[in-house]
Write a structure and sequence with these properties.
The complex is a heterodimer of chains A (about 210) and B (about 775).
Chain A (H helix, E strand, L loop, with lengths): L1 H16 L5 E8 L10 E5 L12 E2 L1 E3 L2 E3 L2 E5 L2 E4 L8 E5 L6 E6 L7 E3 L3 E7 L6 E7 L4 E3 L5 E7 L2 E8 L10 E5 L4 E7 L19
Parallel strand pairs in A: 1-17, 3-7, 6-12
Antiparallel strand pairs in A: 1-14, 2-13, 2-15, 4-5, 7-10, 8-9, 8-11, 11-12, 15-16
Chain B lengths: L5 H67 L1 H8 L3 H15 L3 E6 L3 E5 L8 E2 L3 H10 L2 E7 L2 E11 L3 E10 L2 H11 L2 E8 L2 E7 L3 H9 L10 E5 L2 E9 L4 E8 H52 L14 H28 L9 H7 L9 E8 L2 H8 L1 H18 L5 E6 L2 E7 L3 H16 L2 E3 L2 E3 L3 E8 L6 H17 L4 E3 L8 H16 L3 E10 L4 E13 L3 E3 L5 H7 L2 H21 L5 E6 L1 H4 L4 H12 L6 E6 H5 L2 H13 L3 E7 L6 H5 L5 E4 L1 H5 L5 H16 L3 E5 L4 H10 L3 E3 L7 E2 H16 L1
Parallel strand pairs in B: 17-18, 20-22, 22-23, 23-24, 24-25, 25-26, 26-27
Antiparallel strand pairs in B: 1-2, 1-6, 2-3, 4-5, 5-6, 7-8, 7-11, 9-10, 10-11, 12-14, 12-17, 13-14, 15-16, 19-20, 19-27, 19-28, 20-21
Classes of the chains: A mainly beta (about 210), B alpha+beta (about 775).
The complex binds copper (II) ion (CU).
């Protein structure tokens, strides 16, 4: 439930910024068979951004030997902390070019959050639990959202203007080309998109009671 | 197959049965061994395939495990993520050598080789095992066999996750000879990996010898997968099963059948040795047994052969108390019985029952009837007037007389000289050696000894006799001929009133002339050199000539007139008489019929020989001649000598009966010279009796002979026979005969034999003389 709160929080920020002429984008992503695809990032780029807009601290928790949330979208320069809610230790790392880092075996809350100061996608894993994975998408734009279980994401308070719509998914098989997005006023726009995504069921984690060795 | 020896048969049966049982056993063993071998090899092949599969799976999982461990290594992943190629390579090398991998590689997600232990400094290139890589991309990871740079590897590909996939790690084991050898050591099977390379079959790995490998490589077609088949490689049989490894590589597992059969071959060899040894023992044993059985049997057979050959003296050996011993005992009793009987038969066969002397059979045997015998002289003695004595004084007296004569002969001759009785009043004396002088001296001695009258019941009887001397084997080719010729000599001696005559003198000269005579006789008949002479017969009561005897003459172109005594014996011996007699009868019948036509009715006699009488065609011939000429049968008279009847009395009697039925007159010739009794003659269908001329010659000198002739005439008349006297030469004799009641006379006193053409003239002269 944490990620939904985060989205709402982001949307609330956007609503405060451009109150006068605000458009809302509703994007729904499906697979080739029409199945809704959750955890896809929908990013509107190219809008003029007030540099003072705050970058609130994000968190990727480790709960029951899983990263939560699976996908985290942050603005460039955001810090993310990795609180460990499990009674055991994790070794969080990333070899991704945008942010290689490593938080060696720890329990509870790590000493410091990690600053994501470059744009790009970062795959985060745990060196102890191979199945644990999480993704961070670092973007310039503050206008982003990720699709829910219904495959749809909503971005409110979009300024009018010529923008680019970018779709991304951690398990996408192919990169999806950016597409232009023209907004003029208080329209409510709905966009349907398709993308191919590998299933997330590839690596199952073993049951917890077997994990105490 | 025929075994003539019981021994061989026993051995054959025993050894044959053993051979049958042994070969059946061997066949069974070999057959079941084959089944065991084939089943065992299939089982081993199946186990080998399972081992193979297990080892492949095992090394695959080993590689996968190793690769997975590597793929999770934090530093390794870090090195890859940071493009630290040197570190990546050293990690790969380190890991690879730890597990013994042939190669280790890191392959990027887009299929480019980023690090390769085989080519550390090489440029990035597409991964060579793209099939396996595609499979890994599809399913997350893959493993299998593939070829790379001409070598075959077992390859495993696993992803490197961080945590999303950042690359592939691939590693492979060399599939080479040492791989094959270790598999072979583990499974006990041979293995060869066949791979397609540029359309050729290569053998990248194998545990086999170079030759087998080549032989396998040369086969164009791979064996069908997963089916055990038999394959001959380099002349060795193999059980083979193919196991596909990849699209282009197939593992062939081989089990040498020869090897599998080797164990059984040893067994077969032992069995064969046992069988052979058994056969040898059996042959020896059964030979021993067979000998044990066969030896007494052979001994018996040997004894039987001896008995068969006429040797009854050797006792049959005793062969124990078993069945064969009992057989031998009864065999010996049989031998004794046969010996005794043969003794008796021999005595009967070779002994004359009347005199106890050896008989004619004995003499014939002595003269080589059953084989060559030493030379000897045979003297045949014929008593004078014995028939007349027999008839006049009775059989009993005749028999006693013959016994006394035999006794006297035995007493006369030296010891070692054989005396035997031939038949009737004929005796023979056999002297070894062919000394003519000695033989003649012996004849003179015997002749002299018989001059002494024999005393019988107080009566002095003059016997006397004449002898013929024949030499064996100079005088004849066989014993019968010798006796015949010697008997002829006896007759000749009698005719000439001599004590003896030599057979060699009879029949005109040396043997080669006789032979030529025999040859010429045939031509003589064709050339009509034979002539018939007729000697008139006078009816004493009427004083008229009422008949004539036909006599054969041979007018030889160079030798002149040959008397019958010189060629008739040979004609009889050679059987040529059978051709002469019909000719003679034809002549006689024709002549008699001609005379009849002229009003001269004569009864004409012709002489028949022994052979004629034994010839069944004679009676029909006579009938035919009579019928065609129209001559009444009563005008033909046939004369038979006593001895002619003796050879086969039954057949002779049959012929005589046929002739008698046809109405022809029959006459007994030379009566008194032989031994036939009147009692026998009485049973013959004869009409006439001709008294031998020997009696007539001495009619006037010997009162005894006169008495014999008188009683013979009386007896003849008593039997209803006409009595004819031969050899009447003087008027005194004719007068005596007329007074004695003799019916007919014939002789020089009446007329000599004359050609047929002269008879009518002579008759006319007679008539005119009577008329004067
Ligand atoms: Cu963990």
């Amino acid at each position: 439930m944490i990620h939904r709160r985060t989205v709402l929080f982001v949307l609330a920020l956007a609503a405060c910024a451009t109150e006068a002429s605000a458009a809302e984008l509703s994007a729904c992503v499906t697979g080739p068979t029409g199945r809704p695809i959750p955890d896809a990032a929908v990013v509107v780029e190219g809008a003029t951004v007030d540099p003072r807009m705050p970058r609130p601290l994000a968190a990727i928790e480790q709960i029951d030997r899983d990263f939560v949330p699976f996908l985290t979208i942050v603005r460039q320069g955001t810090e993310i902390e990795f609180p460990n809610r499990d009674p055991l230790k994790h070794h969080v790392y990333s070899f991704s070019a945008a942010k290689p880092f490593e938080i060696k075996l720890y329990a509870g809350k790590p000493a410091a959050p990690v600053l994501f100061d470059k744009t790009g996608d970062i795959a985060i894993g745990c060196n102890i639990h191979d199945w644990m994975e999480a993704y961070v998408l670092v973007v310039e734009s503050p206008y982003f959202a990720k699709t829910g279980p219904d495959g749809c994401a909503k971005i409110a308070d979009l300024p009018a203007g010529r923008h680019r719509l970018r779709l991304w998914h951690p398990l996408q098989r192919q990169a999806v080309a950016e597409r232009p997005l023209v907004l003029d006023g208080a329209d409510s726009i709905r966009i349907d998109a398709t993308m191919e995504v590998s299933p997330r069921t590839a690596r199952r984690k073993p049951p917890a009671d077997k994990d105490d060795y | 197959m025929v075994f003539r020896s019981i021994e061989r048969r026993i051995v054959a049966v025993f050894v044959g049965l053993l051979a049958l049982v042994t070969s059946l056993t061997l066949l069974l063993v070999i057959e079941s061994n084959d089944r065991v071998v084939s089943g065992e090899s299939e089982r081993r092949l199946g186990a080998g395939v399972r081992t193979f599969d297990y080892l492949v799976a095992y090394s695959q999982s080993q590689m996968e495990t190793a690769a997975s461990v590597l793929a999770r290594d934090f530093s390794f992943r870090e090195a890859i993520a940071t493009q630290d190629r040197a570190t990546v390579l050293s990690v790969l090398r380190n890991h690879g050598s730890r597990i013994g991998a042939g190669f280790m590689m890191v392959v990027s997600l887009d299929g480019m080789v980023m690090a390769d232990t085989l080519a550390p400094g090489g440029k990035p290139r597409p991964a060579p095992f793209d099939g396996l890589l595609r499979a890994a991309q599809a399913t997350g990871q893959s493993a299998g066999f593939d070829e790379m740079d001409g070598r075959l590897y077992q390859i495993a590909i696993v992803p490197i996750m961080a945590p999303g996939q950042i690359a592939w790690v691939a590693m492979g084991f060399n599939v080479d000879d040492s791989w094959a050898r270790s598999f072979s050591a583990m499974s006990g099977l041979g293995i060869a990996v066949l791979a397609e390379s540029d359309g050729r079959t290569v053998v990248p790995a194998g545990s086999l010898s170079a030759e087998l490998r080549d032989a396998l490589g040369e086969r164009s077609a791979l064996p069908p997968p997963d089916i055990p088949i038999l394959m001959s490689l380099n002349g060795q049989r193999h059980h083979v099963m193919a196991r596909p490894m990849s699209e282009r590589a197939t593992a062939v597992l081989l089990l040498s059948l020869d090897q599998a059969e080797a164990v059984f071959r040893d067994l077969h060899r032992s069995l064969a040795v046992i069988a052979l040894g058994g056969a040898v023992l059996f042959i020896l044993g059964s030979l021993r047994l067979a000998r044990h059985i066969a030896r007494p049997v052979n001994t018996l057979a040997e004894a039987a052969r001896r008995i068969e050959a006429g040797d009854y003296h050797e006792p049959v050996p005793d062969s124990g108390a078993d069945e064969i011993g009992q057989l031998a005992a009864s065999f010996d009793r049989m031998r004794q019985g046969i010996a005794a009987r043969e003794q008796k038969i021999l005595r009967l066969a070779y002994e004359d029952g009347l005199t106890g002397l050896p008989n004619r059979t004995w003499l014939l045997d002595r003269l080589g009837r059953t084989g060559p015998t030493p030379p000897c002289a045979v003297l045949i003695l014929d008593l004078d007037r014995f028939g007349l004595i027999n008839d006049a004084l009775g059989h009993a007296v005749g028999d006693r007389l013959l016994r006394l004569v035999g006794d006297r002969l035995v007493a006369t001759v030296a010891p070692g000289i054989g005396v035997c009785r031939l038949w009737g009043d004929e005796f023979a004396v056999v002297r070894d050696g062919t000394d003519t002088e000695a033989a003649i001296a012996l004849s003179v001695t015997i002749h002299a000894a018989l001059q002494e009258p024999i005393l019988l019941d107080g009566q002095r009887i003059d016997v006397g006799g004449s002898l013929g001397i024949g030499f064996w084997p100079q005088d004849a080719a066989d014993s019968n001929t010798l006796l015949q010729r010697t008997e002829l000599a006896v007759r000749e001696a009698k005719r000439q009133f001599r004590g003896y005559a030599l057979a060699s003198e009879i029949g005109a000269g040396p043997p080669h002339e006789q032979l030529s005579l025999i040859g010429e006789m045939r031509d003589a008949l064709l050339r009509q050199e034979f002539e018939v002479f007729y000697q008139p017969k006078l009816d004493l009561a009427s004083g008229r000539v009422t008949g004539a005897e036909a006599l054969l003459r041979w007018r030889h172109p160079s030798r002149g007139l040959i008397p019958p005594a010189q060629f008739i014996p040979f004609a009889e011996q050679t059987g040529f008489i059978r051709e002469i007699t019909p000719w003679l009868l034809d002549q006689v019948v024709a002549r008699t019929a001609a005379w009849r036509a002229q009003g001269l009715n004569l009864v004409v006699s012709a002489n028949l020989s022994t052979l004629d009488l034994l010839h069944s065609g004679l009676a029909p011939l006579v009938k035919r001649l009579l019928a065609s000429s129209g001559l009444p049968p009563g005008q033909l008279c046939l004369e038979i000598t006593e001895s002619a009847l003796m050879d086969d009395p039954d057949l002779a009697l049959a012929t005589l009966n046929q002739l008698a039925e046809s109405g022809v007159r029959l006459s007994i010739d030379d009566y008194g010279a032989g031994h036939a009794s009147l009692a026998y003659l009485k049973s013959l269908p004869v009409h006439e009796l001709k008294i031998d001329q020997a009696f007539i010659f001495s009619l006037m000198e010997s009162g005894k002979d006169a008495e014999i002739v008188r009683s013979t005439i009386a007896l003849g008349h008593a039997l209803g026979l006409k009595v004819v006297a031969e050899g009447a030469e003087t008027d005194a004799e004719l007068g005596w005969l007329k007074r004695a009641g003799c019916d007919v006379a014939q002789g020089y006193g009446i007329a000599r034999p004359m050609p047929g053409a002269e008879v009518t003239g002579w008759m006319a002269d007679q008539d005119s003389a009577v008329a004067r």
